[in-house]
Amino acid sequence: MGLLLGAGIFGAWLATLVLALLAEPAGWTPAALGLVIALRTLLQTGLFILGHDAMHRTLVPGRQRLNDGLGRLALLLYAGLPYARCRRHHLRHHRFPGSRLDPDFRRAIGDGALRWYARFMGNYLSLGQLVLLLASWLAVAGGLMLLEPRQALAVPTFWVLPLVLSSFQLFLFGTYLPHRGDGSSPAGRHAVRSLGYPHLLSLLACYHFGYHREHHAHPGVPWFRLPQLRGHVPHQHGHGYGPADDSRPLRPGR
User: Fold this and answer.
1) Maximum CA extent, the chain
2) Is 253 a member of any domain?
3) Domain limits for position 198
4) Tens digit of pLDDT for each residue in 26-37?
5) E strands in the chain
6) Residue 54 lies in a domain
7) Nearest to 7 by CA among 80, 74, 78
8) 152-198 tens-digit pLDDT
9) Distance of CA 15 to the CA centre of its chain
10) Tally of domains in the chain
11) Is residue 249 part of a domain?
12) What global pTM score does this model have?
């Protein structure tokens, strides 16, 4: 199931990118423009979710080489991210959530969302990756200009902007809201919390990663099965729930 859904996300991301880049610029209405940007943002986020599941070895369970290869491809297409480094950082996040060893957590209680977001992105993006992204965008934009000068505007509109919006989406629903705390945990303690959105909204928000306590409790469960865990993970304070590299599937109803 994970591989089939992954193939669908990969295919839809590529198809919508090509179609959007080649569409007639004058043919877009504001409503169509907004809808396609939203769809491209959701699919862009989906690439990272596939890379994330690959980090937990749940994208293609039992076939580590294929799993890691697809994870590398997903993160490369997402933003030129290096799979090995992202995996090291993410597994540290699972082992030490909310501590100084957690690369995704804020440094101080008073840190605001923007400072936290900037540090979060700095942990995953490097100058070399930014150069690679810029070179890719300029190369494609240059090719489109040969067809129609205005066509080059499709690159920032349908490729760059969805990536930026996706990074906010992942940070907001996958890191900031689940890990910021709500004042109910004891002073100095960190508590992972779930967002409790309805099923469709949970899917659209960030591929069910609003079920964040469930994910930390069972990191070996892929994104599309997280809703099955609702109500099976007790609310608790503290730093973590289980091993970050546990890829054993959870039986339905467990």
Assistant:
1) 61
2) no
3) 2-229
4) 778 999 999 999
5) none
6) yes
7) 74
8) 999 999 999 999 999 999 999 988 888 876 544 444 455 688 888 99
9) 20
10) 1
11) no
12) 0.86
